[in-house]
Automatic annotation (TrEMBL):
PANTHER family linked to this entry: RIBONUCLEASE J
Zinc found in the keyword field: yes
Location in or out of the cell: Cytoplasm
Enzyme class: hydrolase
EC number: 3.1.-.-
Name used for this protein in its record: Ribonuclease J
Pfam families per record: Lactamase_B, RMMBL, RNase_J_b_CASP, RNase_J_C
Subunit and partners: Homodimer, may be a subunit of the RNA degradosome.
CDD domains to which the protein is assigned, alphabetical: RNaseJ_MBL-fold
Length: 558
């Protein structure tokens, strides 16, 4: 059903307005704006990674349009944790106004600052920890420890006179985390006793029954795979998954192997994690990548990026033999990560490429080398029963995840009308314990393409898809300016066609005849003549070759 757009009313005094700008109906670009008393608070500011139908796009940002004219009203950006889908768009927001304060835990802010350094932005930051309270304008914030697939993740409770909101960020309830920092259910219970008016809750695994396994359960599997590997081992994971890297370091040390980090983001993030004490590196295990190549094959583990099949990442380049490390028979490659929706084909292409080269590829489908960082249905039910929220807004997930989360909430007794299924741009007002939808903004995708931000449109991407899938034809014709008669041409050149250009000899007389007919009708306008050429060759190519290529006609008057 198409979305009905309508503007929200003026915000009444004493009402809290919530507008998700990203993260609903997708896994990525998480960003939610809270407004009270003329001030704005932002929670998270992430990116979405492009899919195959978005060729040439580097990143996709939330649409900042609703807040662009109100940058001075922003009191701060709370970052729940350091994953790209929650922090990746921060540089693009700060390019609009560089002194917007960033609030987050130590590791989260360190990762953001390293990213901002590349953009030559020095941010204003406030480091917070679980249990801490801070006031930003009319918003009183309380931070709660949650565990996730990156250390130092925080949920945030937002208090205003309009009510209490709890946003989980990404979280799970691992009871035996590697860093012994569990999700603080005692704090959740205390907030539940106070009365949570609106619960914004991670939906990613809402359609997965039961409980997410513990991160520790992966350690023995990694240990076994690395212990049995006859030659080199390559482990691919997210460049911010400190716990996963920790387990790889420990398994490598146990089997007398050294570890080299591959990929700029992996090196940067793990250096930060080690400096801050989140990554504990066994003595003598790390080795520089260039020196690692001199080691015997059975003494090295490469820790790399590229677990999502990204074309320019290390693992894809290995699979394409476009990297100094060329996998071969006896090598073991471990994909220690999940499949982000939309990346499946790219990942399976990499797996096939590596398998064809003779490598033994170990992945989630054939070994327990990954557990999710998100709460499954059983954990979410616990949260609903502990918190007893008055209203629920499922966030972070595709529509099926949001719907599954809403059903869980309803199973625990939350009325259907208090369970809001929203999308990006939905405007929700909270007042007197009631949250209701009051508007729907028109938000789009903002594409980062090389150095351009927001200039590439969906029409441009459609053109790229046509070029990639259907090919390209250019037609050049020179006509007499006074008579419209063809003097030279038409010259037809094609790209992306199996056929030789000679196949177009049949259509050239048709183009000349169509131009002559147009000239007899008094048509002299270059654009109109170009359209005659486009229609004529387009119809012929469609009928003769069953193709719909991009056609660029050029009519020159002489």
């Amino acid at each position: 059903m198409p979305t009905t757009l309508y503007d929200p009313p003026e915000l009444e005094a004493g009402t809290l307005r919530i507008v998700p700008l990203g993260g609903l109906g997708e896994v990525g670009r998480n960003m939610t704006v809270f407004e009270y008393g003329g001030k704005l608070l932002i929670v998270d500011c992430g990116v979405l990674f492009p899919e195959e139908h978005q060729p040439g796009v580097d990143l996709i940002l939330p649409d900042f349009e609703p807040i662009k004219h109100r940058l001075d009203d922003i009191v701060g950006v709370v970052l729940t944790h350091g994953h790209e889908d929650h922090i990746g768009a921060v540089p693009y927001l700060l390019k609009l106004k560089s002194d917007i304060p960033l609030i987050g835990s130590g590791l989260t802010l360190a990762l953001v600052e390293a990213k901002l350094k590349e953009h030559r932005i020095r941010p204003f930051t406030l480091t917070v920890a679980e249990g801490q309270r801070e006031n930003l304008g009319p918003f009183e914030l309380e931070f709660v420890a949650v565990n996730h697939s990156i250390p130092d993740a925080l949920a945030v409770a937002i208090r205003t006179p309009a009510g209490l909101v709890l946003a989980t960020g990404d979280f799970k309830m691992d009871q035996l985390p590697l860093d012994d920092r569990i999700t603080d259910l005692r704090a959740f219970a205390r907030l539940g006793e106070e009365g949570v008016d609106l619960f914004l809750v991670d939906s990613t695994n809402a359609d997965v029954p039961g409980f997410t396994p513990t991160e520790r359960s992966i350690g023995p599997v990694l240990d076994q795979v690395i212990g049995k590997a006859p030659r080199r081992v390559v482990v691919a994971s997210f460049s911010s998954h400190v716990h996963r890297v920790q387990q790889v370091l420990d398994a490598a040390a146990a089997h007398g192997r050294r570890v080299a980090f591959l990929g700029r983001s992996m090196v940067r993030n793990m250096t930060i994690a080690e400096d801050l004490g989140y990554l504990k590196v066994p003595d003598g295990v790390l080795i520089d990548y260039k020196k690692a190549r001199d080691l015997p094959d059975d003494q090295i583990v490469y820790m790399s990026t590229g677990s999502q099949g990204e074309p320019m990442a290390v693992l894809s380049r290995m699979a394409n033999l476009d990297h100094a490390i060329e996998p071969g028979p006896g090598d073991t490659v471990i994909l220690a990560s999940s499949l982000i929706p939309g990346n499946e084909n790219a990942v399976y292409r990499v797996i096939d490429g590596l398998t064809k080269l003779g490598a033994n590829v170990v992945h989630k489908g054939n070994a327990k080398v990954h557990v999710s960082g998100h709460a499954a249905a059983g954990e979410l039910l616990y949260c609903y029963n502990i918190l007893k929220p008055r209203n629920v807004l499922p966030v972070h997930g595709e529509y099926r995840h949001l719907m599954a989360n809403a059903r869980l909430a309803q199973d625990t007794g939350i009325p259907e009308e208090r369970t809001l299924l929203a999308e990006n741009g939905t405007v929700i007002d909270l007042r007197d314990g009631v949250a209701e939808v009051v508007g729907q903004l028109d938000l789009g995708f903002v594409y980062v393409d090389g150095s351009t931000v927001g200039e590439i449109t969906d029409a441009d991407l459609k053109d790229r898809r046509i070029l990639g899938e259907e090919g390209f034809i250019s037609v050049i014709v020179v006509v007499d300016a006074s008579t419209g008669k063809v003097i030279s041409g038409p010259e037809v050149h094609a790209r992306g066609f199996a056929e030789d250009d000679a196949v177009f000899e049949d259509v050239k007389p048709k183009i000349a005849a169509a131009l002559a007919e147009a000239a007899q009708s008094g048509v002299r306008d270059q654009h109109a003549l170009s359209q005659v050429v486009r229609r004529t060759i387009g119809r012929w190519v469609n009928q003769s070759l069953r193709r719909r290529p991009m056609i660029v006609p050029l009519v020159i008057e002489a």
